[in-house]
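User: Please run a holo structure prediction.
Assistant: Happy to. Please share the sequence and the ligand.
User: Here you go; the ligand is iron/sulfur cluster.
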Amino acid sequence: MKFVLKSFGCQMNKLDSALVTSAMKQAGFEVSDSPVESDVVIINTCSVRQHAEERVLSHLGHLKHIRKSRPGLVVAVMGCMAQRMGEELLANEAVDIVCGPGQIDKLPELIQQRLEKKAKHLAVAEKIRAKVEESEAQGLEEFEVANDLTEDQLPGQAYVRAMRGCNKFCTYCVVPYVRGPEASRPPESIISQIKHLRDQGIKLVTLLGQTIDSYSYTENGKKWGLAELLEGASAVEGIEWVRFITSYPTDLDDSILAAMAGNPKVCKYLHLPAQSGSDKILKAMNRTYTSGQYLELLTKAREMVPGIAIAGDFIVGFCGESDEDFEATVSLVQKARYKSCYIFKYSPRPGTTAEKRLEDDVPEDVKKARNTRLLEVQSLISEEDNGRLVGRRMRVLVEGPSKKAHLDKSSQDVDHKQLISRTGEDYIVVFNGPAQLAGQFAQVKITKASALTLFGEL
Ligand code: SF4
């Protein structure tokens, strides 16, 4: 029996996809890359943006056609959209199984049952904000540990979930309603998973959590925060780099910055979404800081961790965002001098406070224009700051051959492929070298820089 899994959405989703792929293989299924040749199609969905949900629905339309020529095909929808839409999604002609993020450990069995012609099945949390039952939490934990995380990931690198869920309730965000309350995984379990990954050749581990800096677990009387977890993960022999994403500004305490400054294995990369530079909008978003406090935090991070690279996230066109509010965001980006920025146009998500109580009153063309302008502002900053890295020698972890080999037309080296790699600070570095370097560390001298990419020589 063959299966194909298509993943939409964030890193957390990709991690779930890797776990399910591994579990399906262990259950005797073979991976395929085409729905037409498969017995099972699994779609891992994302609800964070409207666009991601629209893509899933259009994909389901396509599967409905395929099912006409393959009537026995089983289609399972997992992930945030499955939790959010539940019954409504199960009613879709193309769907057999709907499975929320907290039920993925049951998915291979549900698929098996449906292949045996059992009824359609809905497996989602009934009360998503209720504390997860001990037995269910245990089931998820065992599933996480028993399955392989390296599937579909870059050579030498793996993501490890440190936390599930979120308690912040930013008014625009659907995550607390689809991934449930914040829950930290036991450190012992995380560290034994990292040892297992190390045995498979993993050198860089990225710890994942919606608000990873609020990680907290008490084990045998010892309290673990993110700083302790970073120390524990980097103490695993063979692991050379440890990173963490994503941080929430008011949870970022000095102990985390001290771990970044003092431990050479902890990468000096901080992803710290601000979302807006206007205090009025931050309040409407229920972000619990002002732009001034956020900038002070950046100053402290840079003082405590010299060489730190910081990435930001922004939503433009949020409810009530005036030109003046947007200009405050532009000003924050100019002051923050991020390494890079992720910028999104606001779209209301069903069930969130913003969707229920605030008016989506910024016209689409204004959102687009603000998005473009902010990208331009950041691009100029990145270009300027990246230019200062020319001449530096940097240690990189090589990902593999570059898919956009046209990026550097000046290269005359025909024997060596153009490789793509990243530094610990998450700079993308392109250089020519032997393909066998994939998954290995290398020293590269930076010779040229653009806003998004550094170019170098091995
Ligand atoms: S911190 Fe806010 S934006 Fe991030 S997952 Fe939680 S609710 Fe969503």
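The chain has three domains: 2-123, 134-387, 393-457.
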